[in-house]
Amino acid sequence: MYPVWLSLQLVFHIVALTLDGLSASKHSGEPSANYLMYIHNWCYLLLILSNVIDLVVNLYVHICARHILQERESETGGAEIVMRNRTAKISFKTMGEYYTVRWYMKVTWVFFTISTVSGLTITILYLLSFYFIRAFGDSYGILGTGISETQWEFGTIAFMLINGAIVVLHLFISAKPFKLLHFYMPWAVYFVYVLFSVVYQKRWGDFVYRVLDWNQIYRTFGISAIVLVVLLPLVHLLVYAIIALRVRIGEWCLIKCAYRRWRNKKKVRPSSTQVDVVREPKSRKHKKRIRENRIESSNIDETVDEDIDYTKSFDQTGSPSGGTSIGDSTNNAEYQGHTDHRDRRTVSASHMSMASRSYDNLMASPRDQTLADSQTEVSVV
């Protein structure tokens, strides 16, 4: 789904850039080369470039280099879940020790950091410009020579407001890391633009923005220093806080999912071949039925033991041979009694099996009890 999100984002950026470029060339009367003089166009082009690189790398990894995904999933340092006393701990800090980041992924990382901080900074500067317009008049517009309170064109809304919303949404969707010490990357872009404004005004004699009029060097230097030293680090810290919040939310979701899987796994009843599960009775009637079944099964066991002892003693004396003497008649009587005992033993064994089945049905679940009843009916038939 992430490549789909990148594709939709890229289509929107290309449409917004095309419409803004056409409207700027028709209404402003400036040459098309002047379109690249403004910092918000720089930042928007960086955002599009970052989007293109990210999309190309993702398609390459998912199509041509799927072994990278398998390698990352097989490593234990990426997103390992350790259960300790019903608690899951997820470690993302040791990922670099096990997983090697490719050079093209590092390129996407750099452009992601630059475009994110630069885009949010432009949005904040644009919102601050309206405050300065209301407070000090139109002569202190921050983001352009012709900015005013009624300037709500498509390019302005797309570059300044929608751009910031997309950047914040992308922070929660993307899983790229963000380092606090990488603040120098977006800072370098703004520093290069300040140098560009100095060279441009010295070469052509005109300023790009009114706040970057180097003829008033103290005011322009102060504003540039505030943006470079104060605003950019604060925005970078804000992005870092958003990324930390995203990681915490992801950890919480993974912990909840892992705990639910662990808890549901404990509730699964193992098969009878693996372990003999004994369930405790829950009601007095249930306990009474269990005691009655135990007493009945113990009585049956005693009867069967007596029959077995008698059978052994009779086998030692020998079976009757069909004589007509008194001893033979006695043996015939004993043999007939033994046959009766054997029949009674068979009946007792059948009662014992039925009692044991009823006991098992009593201790088993409703599903197992239904299965046991069906088996009993089949055996009776």
From TrEMBL:
Residues 273-296, 311-381 are annotated as: Disordered. Keywords: Membrane, Signal, Transmembrane, Transmembrane helix. It comes from the Eukaryota. Residues 337-346 have a biased composition (Basic and acidic residues). The keyword Transmembrane helix applies. Residues 282-291 have a biased composition (Basic residues). Residues 347-359, 367-381 have a biased composition (Polar residues). GO terms for cellular component: membrane. This is Protein rolling stone. It comes from Dreissena polymorpha (Zebra mussel).
